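Thread: Newbie trying to understand structure tokens

Hi all, I'm a second-year student working on a class project, and my supervisor (Dr. K.) asked me to get a predicted structure for one chain before our next meeting. I've only ever worked with sequences, so writing a 3D structure as a token string is new to me. If someone could post the tokens and maybe explain what I'm looking at, I'd be very grateful. Here's the chain:
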Amino acid sequence: MFRDLDRAGRWLLTSGIQDTSGGVARYYRSDLERNAPVSAEITGYALSAFLCLHHLDGAPEYMEAAVRAARFLTRSAWDAAATAFPFELSSGLAYFFDTGIIVRGLMRLWRETHDPEPLETARASARAMAADFAAGGVFHPILKLPSKQPLPYDHRWSMEPGCYQLKAALGWLELDSAGPYEKVLDYSLAGEAAFLPGDPDRERVMDRLHAYSYFLEGLLPRAERPECARALARGIGRVATHLREIAPVFARSDVYAQLLRVRLYADRLGVLRLDRAAAEEEAAAIAAFQCDAADPRMKGGFWFGRKRGEFLPYVNPVSTAFCVQALALWQTYKEGRFDPDWRALI
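---
Reply by user tm_fold:
Sure, no problem. This is what the structure looks like when written as tokens:
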């Protein structure tokens, strides 16, 4: 594993972003010198990231960290009475998207270890996703706990059903339950064209690029279908155009990483030939977000974003996970070893 990936892995393992419970904080605030609260969703992402790094590096510390993250999810975060993962332990809210990400992480660990505990929790939470969030052909994004009443929608993308939910729906495919995934796929394809730009504020459009990239990732298991291939190819172009227009004002590291990852998948799946110059540019942009500070709470992690040339004060575990995987996939692509298995995508 080359140096920038090793430094990122060390940050995830040793910075304190994963606490003693196994839970992972949403980010480290460099200006306040403290972590944000632990989040179930972020722990689910970190679980997948640790397993990705274990696959790349083979170091047992990554598997140990993954097991700690999974045990936090199954033994502390999972509310068995409510059959839900609260966003944060005392938040009183459950998110459709978060649940799908957690299911995917637990299933990834189960495939590695065959431990029944993550499988059982993944099954229970996937059933709850289908039963509790469903509403007239769409899925509510957020429920109140313990009542499981939907939170009212508003204009923010994360507060409304939308095409971005397709990535969370991959959790059902992980469990070989295609029916609910297909429902989300249908309404995602029907509504995705209106998702971008979706806001007159360019900085908010950058945030929507992140969410729209989830839709593109969620298409990968059905990339052989003509309507999905068209949406994937068209969507890559839309994200790339908006990203380059907005980046001088505001750029998110995860958007660069998501775009590069989906480019590589689309090429290998025969959907869209790789624009190699664009991929090189995106890989260089991703690498520039890695933090070189001496402080071990920051060193090696990836900054969330940059506004007008200045990094925002968030060293982010999900940004780090996406950037690490994007750079690793780019390396394997150039070496002719890229495997387009959608289940490997963090």
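A couple of things are worth pointing out once you decode it. The domain at 3-344 is CATH 1.50.10.10 (Glycosyltransferase). The chain is about 55% helix and 10% strand. Feel free to ask follow-ups in this thread.
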